[in-house]
Amino acid sequence: MKKNLLFLIALISTVFGDVEPDCGPNFYEYHNRIVVFDPLHQAYERIKNDAFYVGVEAWATYVLSNDRGHADRLLGEGELRMGYNYFYNGRDHVTPFLGAGVIKDFTKERYEVRYFSGGTLVHTKKKHYQKPAVAYGAFGLLYDHEFNSIFNLGLHFKGLIGGSVGHRHRNWGSTVGGIDVSLPITFRFGYQRHWDVRLEPFYIYLNGSHISRNYFGGRSTVGYRF
């Protein structure tokens, strides 16, 4: 029994490493984070403490929306962010930022075209279209708290304003505003916590003069820090 207990402790130590490093409350901080292993979600962030921040991110995932009760909408986004990483109390990361990006709902919509002859409906035809992408400028705040060297919890907020790219039929309108709020839950692992898994449920609201949409979904990534 004693040997089994010692073996279990040794195994946990090998997988997760030291929970509390010798550097005190500053838990294995790195300068960069990249997303790996996911072709539908790529990202790079400069996360050095008390230094200039830059983030480049592109992702696509299926989401729930207010007009349908199941996750059959494909939403994608590409974004560039720049700001400053503030670090407080050896645990709190606060990053105000400005950015620009493009977001697109790739789901095909259906609408009906009616043909009349002499005031009488003679034929109807269903057609499909995609709403154009929305190009936007953004401002926001990234906050993450390190409870220990393994578990981080944060709150990310972004406001955006932009407009439809192009003027095709049934676009968003001349001006589009919105918000993106997410709750990143990060588990770090491996020797000196170079690796992490992040689960990030999110809510996105886009409001145009012609169309508005609510999107509920989640982004999940495997990251490497260096």
Walkthrough of the structure:
The protein is mainly beta and 226 residues long. The protein has one domain: Lipocalin, CATH 2.40.128. Helix content is 7%, strand content 65%. It contains one helix and 13 strands. The strands form two sheets. Strands 1, 2, 3, 4, 5, 8, 9, 10, 11, 12 and 13 form an eleven-stranded antiparallel beta sheet that branches. Strands 6-7 form a two-stranded antiparallel sheet. β4 and β5 form a beta hairpin. The protein is elongated, with a radius of gyration of 23 Å. The model is unreliable at 1-25 (pLDDT under 50).
Major sheet description: 11 strands, antiparallel
Assembly category: single chain
Instruction: Give me the CATH architecture, please.
Output: Beta Barrel
- Report how far the terminal alpha carbons are from each other: 40 Å
The rough form would be described as: elongated
Label the structural class. mainly beta
- Report the sheet-strand fraction: over 45%
Tally of discrete structural domains: 1
Notable traits:
226 residues, mainly beta, Lipocalin, 11-stranded antiparallel beta sheet, two-stranded antiparallel ribbon, 13 strands, 7% helix, disordered N terminus
